[in-house]
Amino acid sequence: MSANKLTRATQEPVWVRYGLMTIGLGFLFFFLGLPLVAVFVEALAQGLPLYLEALAEPETRSAIWLTIVIALAVLPFNILFGVAAAWAIAKFDFKGKSLLITLIDLPFAVSPVVAGLIFILLFGSQGTFGPWLAAHDVKIIFAVPGMILATLFITFPFIARELIPLMQAQGKDEEEAAVSLGASGWQMFWRVTLPNIKWGLLYGVILANARAMGEFGAVSVVSGHIRGETNTLPLHVEILYNEYNAIGAFAAASILALLALVTLVAKTIVEWRMKKETEMLNTVLAPEKT
Amino acid sequence: MAAKPHRLLPGFGLALGYTLVYLSLLILLPLGGLVLKSAELGFGQILDIALGERSLAAFRVTFGASFLAAAINAFFGLIVAWVLVRYPFPGKRFVDALVDLPFALPTAVAGITLATLYAGNGWLGRHIEPLGIKVAYTPLGIVVALTFITLPFVVRTLQPVIEDIETEVEEAAASLGASRWQTFVKVIFPAIFPALLTGFALAFARAVGEYGSVIFIAGNLPLISEITPLLIISKLEQYDVLGATALAVVMLGLSFVLLLAVNLLQWWTANRHNNAEPLEVAAGKASGVST
Q: For residue range B94-117, what is the model confidence (pLDDT) as tens digits?
């Protein structure tokens, strides 16, 4: 049989290929491309000066600031937990491991609104610890600590999820070699483990950061919407939009859309680096296998 | 039981201990608190609240729209994944990266943008509304928002599976005389079906809990376009904490069932992959034995 005939038999006819490409890319254009362009067009609808003026509003600036503060507060906890969980799960065998992995995924299955509600039930004025907190003058709900807690809950699985399969695939030979050569636990971690997982860790941090900065539902429930105090940028977008301040809302939204674009670019670069490293590893290992 | 294995690597106790304490304090304890709080109501009262007219309508809207959005994404996601894996075209890497936009773009931004696009004077609404189709501020708007939010799930679960299909299998089918369509229906589709179902379930599970993007475009009319997460918030704002808790616990239960389903599906996918089941099935069919 000629190769040409085989190719034709394993590929779709030209009209089907162009049809599928039109449908697929058209779908992406209407559902992804158009909204992305629309954010910036709406933000700049009244010209650049008004756009910049909207961004310079003190409330918008304080919302940007709070968004950054919450992300910075949340990420170290996520990194610490992600590395610890992945270390235990990937490098050791113990009973109930698959249950633990399922439990780590749990926050993905919980609605953000429910995630906010559970912290109100614990720390709200009617909540379990409410009276005690009030007596000691500690505010968690309708204040920044509650927003940090809700964001911690929402972003809980991101880094662990990236690291567990990566560290499982890497095995424990290198670490065991380091330890038997006399490295202490920390030396092994800093010199062997961390260099091996750095791209996977960065990937998880990028995803967790995007979610932390963009979270709406969970934070909305516990924030109390105090302007200039407990308003993150996504919550501020809602307030401005509901006040029919389209320019202000889309100006704030455009900052978040820029953040999304930066996230996508960073994610793509890290993916590319990880792929390159696995390929390098494979070419190094290949001669041994054969 | 065998003796405790000797562990060469350090840090097991510390890492597992920290993981368990952090997991318990941040996730399990608060979720347990919700279940405990709902126990104050009792099973009968939870059902009464969940089956009230407004709650029932909200559940119907939430699950109906989520199902539709996941189905739309299953159909178009299959096409997008196929096009991205199999066909070369300029700008492919850019398009591939763009698929993750809904994961990166905050939901509130998606919400106000889609509402503006589909409003009567918006870029899309202007052309759609004269045809008698109203999207913004109707249940259809909820479907649109949820389709956007869950778009990456099906594409991303299908892409690696389509990449893994060996062209030899397709060539074999073709040289045995199968048409391209027969090859797709009998060889390719069965191989990617579990992943398609997993993507559908992931999209559905995410859509059911979604709040941020929906509230801007839904119109939020009770009984018509009000989703359950919004109803929970409005109960909370009216200081009806128990009502909100009852709805939340029902949502939580349903989410667990979905999570379980996704896990089972992934397990099924992995098993199929390892056991080369399709060959056995095919052999069984050829010899006339039903499997």
A: 999 999 999 999 999 999 999 999
Closest to A214 (Cα-Cα) out of B112, B110, B107, B102: B107
| Residue B124 within any structural domain of the chain | yes
| pLDDT tens-digit map of B5-15 | 557 889 999 99
Partners of residue A120 in chain B, C-beta under 8 Å: 236, 241
Number of compact structural domains in chain B = 1
Cα B105 to Cα A158, A264, B222, B256: the distances in Å are 16, 10, 28, 26
Select from A6, A84, A213 the Cβ nearest to the Cβ of B19.
Answer: A84
Q: Which band of pLDDT confidence, cut at 50, 70 and 90, is reported for residue A252?
A: very high
Which value does ipTM take for this structure?
Answer: 0.91
More confident residue, B100 or A226: B100
Q: Domain of B203: which CATH number?
A: 1.10.3720.10
Q: Do A23 and B183 touch (CB under 8 A)?
A: no
Q: Which two tokens stand for residue A54?
A: 């909207």
Q: Which residues of B touch A31 (CB under 8 A)?
A: 147-148, 151
Look at residue B103 and tell me if it is in a domain. yes
The pTM of the full predicted model, rounded to 2 decimals, is 0.90
- Collapsing DSSP to helix, strand or coil, B226 comes out as coil
* Nearest Cα to Cα of residue B58 among B49, B68, B46: B49
The backbone region for B137, taken as left when phi is positive above 0, alpha when psi lies in -120 to 50, beta otherwise, is left
Do the domain assignments include residue B9? Answer: no
B231, B55 Cβ separation under 8 angstroms: yes
CA distances (Å), origin B155, targets A101, B94, B97, B202: 24, 15, 12, 11
The one-letter code for the residue type at B181 is W
With contact defined as beta carbons under 8 Å apart, do A119 and A141 qualify? Answer: yes
User: Does residue B34 lie within any of the structural domains?
Assistant: no
